[in-house]
Protein: Prephenate dehydratase
Organism: Actinotalea ferrariae CF5-4
Amino acid sequence: MPSGTSETRDEHRDAAERGRPRYAYLGPAGTFTEAALRQIASPDGAVFLPQVDVVSAIEAVRTGAADHAVVAIESSVEGSVTAVLDTLATGDPLVLQGEMIVPVSFVLAARPGTGLSAVRRVAAHPHAWAQCRRWLLQNLPDGVHVPATSNTAPAAAMATGERELGFDAALVPPPAVEAYGLVPLADDVADNHHAVTRFVLVGRPGPVPPRTGADKTTLVVHLPSNQAGALLEMLEQFAARGVNLSRIESRPLGDSLGRYSFSIDVEGHVDDERVAEALMGLHRVCPHVRFLGSYPRVDTPHGDVRPGTYDADFLAARAWVQALRDGRAH
Ligand SMILES: O=C(O)C(=O)C[C@]1(C(=O)O)C=C[C@@H](O)C=C1
């Protein structure tokens, strides 16, 4: 086959990509998600696969179209990305393999020739809009939100020659202004200037990476229905073993009112005895526990390990019970 045909180019591309990890993420190029991805991979050594939404990014790992996904899971202003929590909680099992934090502030940008006074319709990802609500009220009181699928989708649309976009300006990540040939109308747009978004690296289940000493474990837990004290009993599994929770939130199960799934981050690794013991407790008292992985955390742990809950304490206690069983201790 003559070189230069699209089929040959595809073969070359496949060959070049073979062996390089493939990452699905929310695109197009220049999103905060891509900034998170660039903390762990570079386009020189990996294949970046931009997706239209976070669910498609996660599903690409399930179908095998990607090896990993990077998705936003939690904003310091807007809270959790519920589509991500729900997609991870059900369907074929996946695990979290890492986390990244990205500072988030926006530029209000438009096509060259647009002035701030001409702006009424502002395209923005719903999380971006929520993160800039006060700024918009003060600076564009008549502004109307045009929802966007990501923070760079409107920038990419403005970069095309399309005449009628359906919006006048967009909230975009700072690097997207130049990358998409836009002009800034207002810089550093944010209600909270310390806002950050936390992203997670998602992959298919495999051996859990060794503990680093500063790890996090993510779980999905269901409670027995209509049982007084079920929530307390679930929480006691952690408290009794000195396991600190860094996040807990409930998500409706969807099939009827009053049924919830709990999404939980705990400090520690499944190789830590106290975390393993808490997991065993959950397995005994909860009808459903999904392990979403143990992985290095990016911030420092909040809680100190409580005396009596170190690995050595659990191992000594277990050895003592064994000795009782063997008749070697009383
Ligand atoms: O559109 C992007 O740039 C994203 O990475 C998505 C996302 C999110 O889903 O929360 C990430 C960071 C900001 O908080 C706003 C939007």
